[in-house]
């Protein structure tokens, strides 16, 4: 007798489709939030300073907090992932982000600082963990999902920068304008919650833990860390101070915020172009040189052109932001497993962001002392030249540096 066919495959297929769609939605929503909390704050720094009355030190510290959190909280991400699981770690990060952004609703300098620290620690964990999440759950679509992740990141930042001042005006307070961005963070948390719960229930032997710090002694570790630090210094100096630079030259806050949004908007098609180029081994180095060269031209234009032509540096620096997705793609493809990818991501981002903190904080203090943005912008032009050199080296002959990981130094621990 022939047995009747079982009806198991259909539910399983539906479940698979549902899980796949949820994982794609998770990548999109996390990406939308990863820069919104930062980009929404920069256009409001001037109003916040007037409202709360803090001085130059706090004004320089505020845009530096995210980068410092990315350095120190990011360094602990590998430990958190080991003890909670990858999905649960990202869920915890989204909870921290939501709470931190919500706390900034109160008109208090200390709560503004505390909320920024809490929220940016959440972003730091996501920054490090998401390349591993993409590698683990989308192994056949690493490039396309990295493109999705970085494009939605730019969309979120563009929206936050352009809408930050109007939202704050409609709510009647810059602090409420900051806190409004807790809403999309809460939505991302709700969507990710089923994945976090399912991830916490996984059983079986724990995956290998790879220590990131010995990798700093390798050529790959040094190159990725140096490149990440330099590009992050440029990006977060721009995100933190571009509106302030334009306002100090006579622009109104809404226009300055729009220009920051334009930087992010230009980066969206740039990401698609550069990731397409990176998929062709012979075009990887030209992709790096294109975006690094645009950064040099953009910061030179910001230094030399009058504020009436601020659209020019905005477009050029937007092209320069394409370096980030190229690096994230190379990190996602590096290593033999998700643990090694997490280790390299942890190293590059924790040490790299520590280097990058010199940008927003140091340049803010320097401007406060000199009363001008000329010298800080000259320094940033010099950093863009260093980025060209590192981009040329890291792009190699069309693929990431292939130095093998030494199992004696970075093996399971």
TrEMBL record:
It comes from the Bacteria. Gene3D superfamilies: MFS general substrate transporter like domains (1.20.1250.20). The keyword Translocase does not apply. InterPro entries: MFS, MFS_Cyanate_Porter, MFS_trans_sf. It holds the Pfam family MFS_1. One of its GO terms (molecular function) is transmembrane transporter activity. Keywords: Membrane, Transmembrane, Transmembrane helix. Coiled coil: none annotated. The chain crosses the membrane at residues 57-81, 88-106, 112-134, 146-172, 178-200, 221-242, 254-275, 287-305, 311-331, 343-367, 373-392. This is Cyanate transporter. The lineage of its organism: Bacteria, Bacillati, Actinomycetota, Actinomycetes, Micrococcales.
